[in-house]
C-alpha cells in the first residue's frame, strides 16, 4: 500500500466547523435571526410612530427587553466569536426589505448587536457567563434608553431621563433571566449549541 493510499482526506474548510461560520452554527444563527426579525421589524416600524411624548419614551423603554431578546438569543444559543454581529447583519438585511429604513437598517442592527458583542470581546471570548451577558444588557439598555429622547426629538426632564434608563435596564435584565431559562430548556432538548 502506498503512502498516498493512507492519507485521510479532509475538507479545506474543516477549521470553520467550530467557528461561527460553521454550517451548523451559521444555520442556527440564520434561523434565530429570522425569529429575531419577527420582533425587530414591527418594533422598527412602530417605534418612530409612537415615540412622541416622554410617557411614550418610558413605555418604549419598558419594552426594550423585546429588542434585546432579538439580539441576545443568537449569541446565547451559539456562543461563538462574532455570533451577535452575524445575527445583527442578517436581521439588518431582512429589515432592509421589510421596513421603511432601507439599507440603513443594516447599520442600526449591526450597532445593536455590537452593544452585546463588545463586552464579550473585551474578555477575548473566554467568558460566556451571565455577568458578561449582563454587561451587554447594561450597555444595550442604557445606551438605547439614553438615545431615545434626543433621537426622536422628545424633551425629557432629568428625572424622566433617569427613570427611562432604569426601566430599560430592568426590562433587559428580566429578558436576560428568561433567555437563560430558555437556553437551559433548549440544551436539555438537545437543540442549543454547546461550546
Short description:
The chain has 195 residues and is mainly α. It has helices at 23-50, 54-62, 64-77, 83-98, 104-122, 130-151, 158-188. The chain is globular, with a radius of gyration of 19 Å.
List keywords for this structure.
mainly alpha; globular
Task: Describe this structure as you would to a colleague.
With 195 residues, this protein is an all-alpha fold. The chain is 71% helix and 0% strand. Helix 3 runs antiparallel to helix 6.
Layout of helices and strands:
Layout: H1 23-50, H2 54-62, H3 64-77, H4 83-98, H5 104-122, H6 130-151, H7 158-188
Helix pairs in contact: 1-3, 1-4, 2-7, 3-4, 3-5, 3-6, 3-7, 4-5, 5-6, 6-7
Q: What characterizes the major β-sheet?
A: none
Shape: globular
Compressed to H and E, one letter per element, the order equals HHHHHHH
Q: What gyration radius follows from the Cα positions, in whole Å?
A: 19 Å
Per DSSP, what share of the residues sits in E-state strands of 2 or more residues? under 5%
In helices, the fraction of residues equals over 70%
Low-confidence stretches: none
The pLDDT mean sits at 88
Q: What is the number of E strands?
A: 0
Structural class: mainly alpha
The end-to-end span amounts to 39 Å
* Continuous helix count: 7
